[in-house]
Amino acid sequence: MLPKDITKKIRRTEITTSRLVTDMLSGDYESVFKGRGMEFDEVREYQPGDEIRTIDWNVTARMGRPFIKKYIEERQLTVMLLLDLSGSSYFGTSKMLKRELAAEVCAILAFAAVHSKDRVGLLIFTDKIEKFIPPGKGLQHVSRIIREALYFKPEGRGTDLAGALRFLDSVISRRAVTFVISDFLTKDFKKPLAIANKKHDCVAITITDPRESELSDAGLVELTDAETGSTVLVDTSNYKLREKYAANAKRLSVERIKTFNAVNIDHIDVHTDKPYIAEFVKFFKARRRRI
Question: Which domains does the chain have, with CATH numbers?
Answer without folding.
Answer: 4-34+76-290 (3.40.50.410), 39-73 (no CATH)
